[in-house]
Amino acid sequence: MNNESHLPDSNRLMALAWLICLITTLCYSYDFFIRAAPGVMAKDLIDSFGINSTELGLLSSAYFISYTIMQIPAGIMLDKYNRRLVISLATTLCVLGNYLFSATDSYQVAFFGRILMGIGSAFGFIGAAKMAAMWLPSRFFASFIGFATVIGILGGLMTDTILSSLVSNLGWKEGNAVFTYIGIAILILVVVFVRDNPKHVEQFTHLSEANLKETIIKVCKIFTNLKFWAASIIGAILFIPLNILGSLWGTGLIQAKFGIDQEVASQINGMLFLGSAVGFAIAAILASLTKKYRQMLIISIVLLVSILTIILYAPLQIQTFTFFYFLLGAVAGPQAVTFAIAKTMSPPGTTGSSTAGVNMINNFIPIILLPLIGYILTHYGTFIDGSTNIYTIASYQNALNMVIVFLLLCLPIAMLLPKEVEYQQ
Fold it and tell me: Range of 143's domain?
């Protein structure tokens, strides 16, 4: 039986609850921006640091490595300790990492900056989910995850529009440095407004009072559930196009397909984020109207395979390509419900840890694929005529075929999920 006695019981507290949740989603949006930034300035980074595509992939994946390693520790900390303090420290690391990345001429320092960004960002999405579980009714959890993802994706859209313009006009260092100040503004909002729900803390006081060993045992039980793994793996693979194309290789793919410059290609790449924002918003609404999450995921998988195949292989006009690129992002929207599926399978009060578990598995994929695709391009790809940094479309097709295979493998895995979910607090 649901127990939501901890929820706000006045209009003022309800308004505060939504404000807190909104601010924590802004943290996730900032995380999404710094995740995707290297894709906009790939050529500039190669020239500035004197690196190749494999090293560029490693630089981008440095974020995902630390991000993934920190998922479970971040989930435990958000379940056990004061959320304002934890989220504030995490945001500070993001800002510091972005500053180092923007200010240095050293590849090693930039790499370290990306690691700091990944550590801080590990708390962003989980923090938003934890605050939603702490302040909002559980029936809205899947919908909130969808809308939080929309706000996060808008950070990626800013990367491909605003940042690409700043990079063109100011240079990559000065353009990227602008977002250090944006991060400071978000940090101030966190310190001023974000706080725990005292009734929730009291209701789940056993989590904050449990010793570390007891907490780890409780969290580990989540990972013994086969359906939890199925939901997590599907969520990871559905997010591949956004992580792989949106974060790094999409701009180059578009340049190769149409022979256009980096700024225009980056703007088209932004349509992937815009489509994702629309798709996750629609999925959020659908999640509040139906419990048939497995059906939503199967439809998403089939559409992703079809659209990605068209984008890679069909001879499209640039306007048609842009439309399909938008759709590629949109049909990934049901990925958000995998977090809600995982939450229903986890012990009450462990939303931070269950969300962290899904997010950790989600980000194993880009850790492997970002440098792997870079390796395939570096060692097996060929440049288009007259270029020393833009690969042929055939090179991108060979490197990205594995994404289609991974998506097809999700179809039998989806059969392990329940046809409908049952809500719990």
Answer: 11-414
